[in-house]
Amino acid sequence: MASPIVIGRIGVDSGIELIPRDVDFDGDVMRVSGELFDMTEPEWAWTRQNVLNLLDNRDEPVVPVTWAADPRLDGYYAPVGASVRGSVGHLANGRLDWSIDLQRIFGGLNVDIDDTYIAFLRVHDHGNGASAAFTNAWIPAEMLPLEDPDDGLTVISTDIRPADTTSPGLAMGTLSDPLATVPNFALRHRIAPEDYYDGGCKVEIDLDGTSTWRDLNGLTVPGNPNGRWRISNGVMRVSQSGTTGDLVVEYWGNTNAWEELGTFRVGNITGFTGATDGEGCYVTENSPLGAKIHYRLSYGTVSAGIAATVDVSLRRGDQFVEILAMGSTFVFGSTTTVACTWTPFGAYRTAANAAGNHFAILTPDAHTKDLANGRLTPTLTNTPRFAVAAYRENSPGEPPFPNNRDGVINGYIGVLASARRFLSR
């Protein structure tokens, strides 16, 4: 039986199987092509866009490729061409012809990955007493760390992955312990193409409203995915609740399964009302290092003119979901009454939920607190910043950082941004 080729996220959990009919080579460029049949209209549009997305995703100029039929071709490639032939006539029988050009980089498997981490203190209004701890919480267990090649940055520990095996097996493959706690470093490592997305971020789309989630390759979604998206990094997962702006936040917690922390709202300050509609939803980042969704909310009647745009984002390893709201005056917090306790950056849940997990709602901006209900009202009215953080232990120290309250709050203050490049060994 012919085997599908996996290109980027196409063939991982995308619901797409591309079985090459022809494979042609021109120097270091490989062209694979074929056709698909018997697809529904949503599947046809989904497949067409995911193939074309190989060229428009600035976040992933290089993608892993694996093919069980000829593993000698496995490696890392730069997509340099993608075309789809299909018309209404083709759609009548569900046929789609596809062709993808892939340029092999550094011999395909002769590739090292260089991740540079730059830490900075998040600008905040809470005084100089707040501390920060820079950490990229989890890394793929399959990653083979090499020596730090850049002497110009702070040297990392030679024991990048401690022998401690107590770390949880999370949602996208087993992940290892905290990567490092130094503020700036470069890490050169290797990872097999088939393991590349373990521990990374992803965007998922419910294609037809049946809760059948598919990984998106690239940035463009056919149609408006309003109310049908979720993003995850294997530790945290967030989705939009219906067509309103409410956000359902989940955590891979104590039961080694996705556990709901709660539903949170970017609400109008008048009565903490939710949005009457969410619209204009776009994917603005989609790579293993980060995922971001941008959408628009309306509150009340059109004549009231109350509207906002919201960015929801996750980075690899973060134990918090970031929310940036722009446009009106907001309250942020839980849609249900949850008693919380004071912290300079916001509030945290006083008692654990039924699964033994906690959350904190945070903002770097000056704000007032409603501890009885678990809500924050920032003083900054037009571009407030929020976050929902998850952790397992309310007291500091146990379990090991960053799975305690102080760990996730300090990790939110100390931001660890990263950039990736591919190098020849």
* Low-confidence runs: 147-170, 172-181, 395-401
Indicate the mean pLDDT. Answer: 79
Number of domains: 2
Percent strand: 35-45%
Task: Set down the secondary structure blueprint.
Elements: E1 5-7, E2 22-26, E3 29-36, H1 41-52, E4 63-67, E5 75-85, H2 88-92, E6 96-104, E7 111-121, E8 144-145, E9 169-170, E10 173-174, E11 184-190, E12 202-206, E13 213-215, E14 229-232, E15 236-240, E16 247-252, E17 258-268, E18 277-287, E19 290-299, E20 306-315, E21 320-326, E22 330-334, E23 340-343, E24 346-349, E25 358-362, E26 367-370, E27 375-378, E28 385-391, H3 405-413, E29 414-424
Antiparallel strand pairs: 1-4, 2-3, 3-6, 4-5, 5-6, 7-11, 7-29, 8-11, 9-10, 12-13, 12-14, 14-15, 15-16, 16-17, 17-22, 18-19, 19-20, 20-21, 21-28, 22-27, 23-24, 24-25, 25-28, 26-27
List keywords for this structure.
single chain; 425 residues; mainly beta; Beta-galactosidase, Chain A, domain 5; nine-stranded antiparallel beta sheet; eight-stranded antiparallel beta sheet; 3 helices; 43% strand
3D structure, described in words:
The protein has 425 residues and is mainly beta. It has two domains: 5-104; 202-424, Beta-galactosidase, Chain A, domain 5 (Distorted Sandwich). It has three helices and 29 strands. The strands form five sheets. Strands 13-12-14-15-16-17-22-27-26 form a nine-stranded antiparallel beta sheet, with no helix packed on it. An eight-stranded antiparallel beta sheet has the order 18-19-20-21-28-25-24-23, covered by helices on one side. Mean pLDDT is 79; it is low at 147-170, 172-181 and 395-401.
